[in-house]
Amino acid sequence: MDSKGSVELQPGEGAPGCPQEGLPCPPDSSELVRECLNQFQLTERQLRQIQARILGSMELALRGEASPVPAVRMLPAYVGSIPHGTEQGDFLVLELGATGASLRVLWVTLTGMEGCQMEPRSQEFLIPQELMLGPGQQLFDFAARCLSEFLDAFPVGNRRLQLGFSFSFPCHQTGLDRSILISWTKGFRCSGVEGQDVVQLLRDAIKRQGAYSVDVVAVVNDTVGTMMGCGPGSAPCEVGLVVDTGTNACYMEEARHVAVLDEDRGRVCVSIEWGSFGDDGVLGPVLTTFDRILDQESLNPGAQRFEKMIGGLYLGELVRQVLAHLAQHGVLFGGRTSPALLSQGGVLLEHVAEMEDPSTGTARVRAILQGLGLSPGAEDAELVQRVCAAVCTRAARLCAAALAAVLTRLQHGREQQTLQIAVATGGQVFERHPRFLSVLRETVKLLAPECDVSFTPSVDGGGRGVAMVTAVAARVAAHRRMLEETLALFRLNHEQLAQVQAQMREAMAQGLRGEASSLRMLPTYVRATPDGSERGDFLALDLGGTNFRVLLVRVAASGVQITSEIYSIPEHVAQGPGEQLFDLIVDCILNFQQKQGLSGQSLPLGFTFSFPCRQVGLDQGILLNWTKGFSASDCEGQDVVGLLRQAIVRKQAVKLNVVAIVNDTVGTMMSCGYEDPRCEVGLIVGTGTNACYMEELQNVAGVAGDVGLMCINMEWGAFGDDGSLGTLTTCFDELVDQASINPGKQRFEKMISGMYLGEIVRHILLHLTSLGVLFRGQKTQRLQTRDIFKTKFLSEIESDSLALRQVRAILEDLGLPLTSDDALMVLEVCQAVSQRAAQLCGAGVAAVVEKIRENRGLDKLTVSVGVDGTLYKLHPHFSGLVAATVRELAPRCVVTFLQSEDGSGKGAALVTAVACRLAQQAPV
Ligand code: BG6
Ligand code: GLC
Ligand code: GLC
């Protein structure tokens, strides 16, 4: 379809017949009538071209392209939310410019309950013609006077009133209460207003008037009021269509597509200002001579060409011109005219609407014509009806082409196969003219068949919608405040983070000295990171993260080769009898050996066991307590290697040679250390969180010797279990802790790791829902279900902050009724929770690297941290935030983070390899 050239005219279809400019009409009257009326006919092809052209123009204008000048304006309206229906309060509305020369003031009371609406009180004032063309200040003073006169009937006293200003002309809005008039349209041409902020002009006038204290809080176009005042329906109402004196529409566009806005999230209402479509001449071929004359005689020749074929101000005028033409050529009224028929404004929309209605009898049509000073003959009524129908049908079909362009735009923007949408309609043409809507509806169906559109008349002529915008602005501000207050609990400043770092340092020192501390600082008996000389084949187990793995690790001069198998540990086993858990582990090992052809062999085995263990040697670890959802009985206080050996005996399986038990942090550090000798810290941020690092042996109480280093498993997940994090823990952390299987334990871990973040978010969402801030206050059963909000959702949601598509998909999957405001707020909740987690983690790492630096008396320390864990690896911003926090809190350390690619099993094998080598070297 041609979207660049002008709209074509198909030969023979709607061809311009009579009157060609300057040419006399053919004498045959029926021929003359046919050719006159044919001019108003548009083919489907032409309509489709107009649809495509408008769509193209809309997209051009959205992108902010200045050349070629887009034919429509696409003006953002600073309205980002469609109404909830829960808005409440009293609002004043002042309407200027929608319906001809009248100004309307309304008092709207919103009850907050759908289906229970109070009738607004309103008063209409006629604007004297001279004010519409005089100095702007006079017009605004008149508006302020009308407002006072209206309010005189209300007992308002000194009350401050909030007013929404419906100003229906093309304006550049720069805020909800700031709007610069671009140009007058529709019979207005007051001086000194174009280029000015009309809200300020109104405020000044109200002040000059001085009678009442009225805050002008929002300004909107009539289309926006129409959309916002849409009654409740099944589909979301995201388009407002006005055919009043003029015509225009607005709709909800993705903010990121609106180039003039900085905002890239959520949606925003855009007023299309399609009335100016065709001002570049593109409509030329479909314009009739009557359109050209009408334009020439208007206040704004050359402008608003599309509007002049559709708007109510012009329909009467077009009919008048055709009737006058036919009368002058002797086809109507016996060749006689009347002063009304010959003067501009002589035939009004209401005449046309009534005469065109097929149910209007000829007697009534004749009466109307007589009222216009004409003497219709018997056949004139029928012909006049045909003229009215031709003009109005064309208007409705053109309007449909434009609306179809908007629907297509919405459908593409939302990447939906079929679009279900409600269009709110407003304006006198709809009110007076029932057939207009039916033609419009049919044509839209033809041009946009994949859209399921329902049309809903706006309530109170858009007045209620304006009150809604005013109320929504107030509600959004209130909800934002509540959201901010809630999330403020999660926002940590530099001082707070430095405090966490300092407390961590203190707790580390106490733990190392063997004093009471929430940090256990467990010696691991790992004294060195790998040096590359390790060789051999090893078995490894990896228990305690998301997956349980059995691995075969081949360490050769050429590198490390890993074969592994994942097994699942069902929750009932993780939380059942200990023997059952270790039996399952042995079963998995046997299965693995069999698969790998290793049955019967007794390879040295390294066991990554990611729970706090007190080690007395490399191959002995007493489980102090379970963490992360494990609670298998009769294990705490036992040597884990012993438990494994007993299971081997029970299973009568071959002997396993368990050489080392290793925490996952240690495994990770060793694994990364194989590639980078500077790796002296291991960090896990996955299901749980923890860190280990190389400490000076002399600082470690309870281990013999004071030369060299030893890796310390900090078990920092338990940091704060002595209450030291009290000021940072929120009520949401308390809820998560209380519902866990280890209340009061692992408090730091519960603020950071994957097992808990989703739950924190879920509790915040529940809280915001109960405040009515989210999901319209509806708490679904699913949202109240524990662990329903997975931590991986945070990663997914935050990965797609632009389109918020992910948020919608996830929340809709959870059965949550979602608006785009909700989606944005859920994203902000996730961001606040994951940001705090990353910053706390960063404060911990800062404490560790600073300790190493000070241990070594260095001005500057260069060190690497080996990291593993799904949260750290999958979350889009977590790692960056950790690094940033470390830079801020430990400026004298240059820290590189290395992500472990092979898991900690490789590290466990390397620890085993070192141990084997040392054992071989040991004197017999
Ligand atoms: C794996 C390691 O890669 O990461 C495990 O091999 C570790 O030892 C785990 O426990 C931590 O991450 P998550 O997200 O699985 O708990
Ligand atoms: C004119 C105005 C526009 C308004 C429309 C309907 O086109 O420019 O702002 O929405 O009329 O009243
Ligand atoms: C838990 C465990 C700890 C482990 C961490 C990461 O905090 O207690 O040993 O390192 O999770 O998996």
From TrEMBL:
It is found in: Mitochondrion outer membrane. This is Hexokinase-3. GO terms for cellular component: cytosol; mitochondrial outer membrane. One of its GO terms (biological process) is glycolytic process. Its EC number is 2.7.1.1. SUPFAM superfamilies: Actin-like ATPase domain. Residues 33-230, 483-674 form the Hexokinase N-terminal domain. It holds the Pfam family Hexokinase_1. GO terms for molecular function: ATP binding; D-glucose binding; fructokinase activity; glucokinase activity; mannokinase activity. Belongs to the hexokinase family. It comes from Phyllostomus discolor (pale spear-nosed bat). Residues 239-472, 681-914 form the Hexokinase C-terminal domain. It is a peripheral membrane protein. Pathway: Carbohydrate metabolism; hexose metabolism; Carbohydrate degradation; glycolysis; D-glyceraldehyde 3-phosphate and glycerone phosphate from D-glucose: step 1/4.
